[in-house]
Every structure is written in C-alpha cells, then in structure tokens.
Amino acid sequence: MTMTTTPTTTRHSVVELTQVSRWYGNVVAVNDVTMTIGPGVTGLLGPNGAGKSTLLHMMAGFLAPSGGSATLNGRRIWRNHEIYRLIGLVPEKEAVYGFLTGWQFVLSAARLHGLPSPADAATRALDLVEMSPAKDRRIETYSKGMRQRVKVAAALVHDPQVLLLDEPFNGMDPRQRLHLMDLVRQLGEAGRTILFSSHILEEVERVAQQIEVLVAGRHAASGNFREIRRRMTDRPHLFRVRSSDDRRLAAALIADASSSAVSLTDQGVEVQAVDFSRFTSLLPKLARDLDIHLWQVSPTDEDLESVFSYLISRSSA
Ligand SMILES: Nc1ncnc2c1ncn2[C@@H]1O[C@H](COP(=O)(O)OP(=O)(O)OP(=O)(O)O)[C@@H](O)[C@H]1O
C-alpha cells in the first residue's frame, strides 16, 4: 500500500489525560484516569462497558470530562475549536448515510470542516484509504470493511494529527481486518498519534506499540504488549488436573511453592498456581516421578474477563 502524507502538518502530538472522570447520572463511566498518548499507534484495551468510548469521546472533544483535564499538546480539548481541527474520530456506530456515495460522504466532511479545497482534500483522503476506485458507489453497496475505510477517510479529510478509532475492526472479515490494520499501522508510522479501542488482546497486539488497559472505568495497566502479556501470565492461574491418582498428586503439589491452594474435587485436583512457569514444568515432572498418568490439565480462568479482573485488582492494590 502506498501512502501520501501532507508535509505542512507538524506531527508530534500528545494527548494527555489528567485524573479524568466522567459520570452519567450515577454511573461512573471513567474514573480518575491519567494517561499520555503520543505519536504512533496505541491500543485502548478493555472489556465491553469499560468506558473506552467515553474516553475517546472526551479526547475528541465530543464530551466534557466531569472532572480532571484532557489536553492536546498542552491545550484544553473541550470547547476548543482550534484543537478540534487537529483531531479526527472514527465512531463505532455506523454514522454513514447509505444513499450517499463514498465521494459525497467524504466531500461533505471536508465542507463541514470549512476546508479551502474540499474536493482536493476528499480526493487525498480517499486515496489514502484506497477507496478511490469505489468512490462513486453508494455506501449501502459497500462491504463492512469498505464502510469502515470510508469513515476513516472522512475522519482524515482535514489531515488531523490525532486519529481516534472506536472498535474499528469489529465485524470485519479477516482479510478486511488485515487491510485496515495495515492502514492504521502506516498512519502511525507516518507520525500521527493514533488511539484505537478494542476488547480483543490479539487485535491490539498486532497493531499497537503501546497498550493502555481500561477496566470498569479505571486505568488498569499500561505498557507494550510484552509487558501486558507478562502481567497477564504472571497472574495466579486456576487449573483443573485429572489424573490416575489425584490424591497423591494433590499432596505432592501442595508441598511446592508454585501453588497457593490445592483442593480435591469430584472433577479432579484444582490448583491455584502462583508461579505459572514453575508449575507448568513441575507438573509433568511430578507425574513422571510418582508414576501418575495425567489425563487432563486445563486452565479454568483463561477468559479475558478474569484477566481483566486480575489487572484491576492489581492496579488498586
Ligand atoms: N449516555 C449514557 N448514559 C448513561 N450511561 C452511559 C452512557 N454512555 C455510556 N454509559 C455507561 O458508561 C459505561 C461506559 O460505557 P462506554 O460505552 O464508554 O464503554 P465501552 O468500553 O466503550 O463499551 P462498549 O465497547 O460496550 O461500547 C457503561 O456502563 C455504559 O452503560
């Protein structure tokens, strides 16, 4: 994919949230979040309802923080029109009119921004997302991936330094997803400050250099994917083990420091492993030494929700 950038824009933008909170009536959607988003691609990872959309909307100037401050390059975002010109938001909702062509949609975004040459800007944005060949078709005839790209073009039409994307890869087929991932990566490499939200760790790992984890409105972890992975692997894991002699196996496991709790149940031995790598090498060794056959070893808490709850419990410790 080739990409053109506009040399006139300074590209080193930093979005800064300082103790930002947002509540809707009694619901605290975002709770005391402090984070800095710099150039390149950052992934905002969190389960549904974590407050990702609310956070992105505050960064885009669509929502006022109830407390704390959100700035871009040191300047307040909320109600600051000059700052709005530097930010593009790709919303999660399908905010596109099916009866418009891609060209009309992106052109109207250019006009709304009051750009001096809206047609040139629309052409450039459509080229950037490789949608020029389909620009004269109505949006309702587009695939999900094409729709998403045309939304990105509309968000990029004013050549913003900051691009915020809310769950951009949702509902796409694998090929479209790879295509958009490639585009997001390239936009980041060109020096833009990009933040996209997702509830899928693998998705975030593939595109983002930096990951910010949000759980129940709180900032639960921050780092590159290796650090986030490590923190997730370091957490206590709950395993269920079925073997030819559960009782003897449980006794041997309990004697080792790799597990904090071992219990015998109808379904086998349940082990709370506090040292993941030590436990996974110890178990086969014990089985061999004691001449016990292992029939089943399965993690019981591998879902992302439990990983998230672990991270949030750590961050509040
Ligand atoms: N306009 C609103 N009025 C009341 N509550 C809201 C409103 N918008 C969001 N919320 C609540 O705030 C919390 C955070 O919502 P938000 O949409 O920001 O999360 P999210 O991480 O983007 O989740 P999802 O991926 O499901 O959209 C949720 O509990 C949600 O129900």
Automatic annotation (TrEMBL):
Keyword Nucleotide-binding: yes
Pfam families in alphabetical order: ABC_tran (PF00005)
SMART domains noted in UniProt: AAA
InterPro entries recorded: AAA+_ATPase, ABC_transporter-like_ATP-bd, ABC_transporter-like_CS, P-loop_NTPase
Keyword field: ATP-binding, Nucleotide-binding, Transport
Record-linked PROSITE patterns: ABC_TRANSPORTER_1 (PS00211), ABC_TRANSPORTER_2 (PS50893)
SUPFAM superfamilies: P-loop containing nucleoside triphosphate hydrolases
Record GO terms (molecular function): ATP binding; ATP hydrolysis activity
Positions of the ABC transporter domain: 15-241
Family: Belongs to the ABC transporter superfamily.
Protein name: ABC transporter ATP-binding protein
Organism: Planotetraspora phitsanulokensis
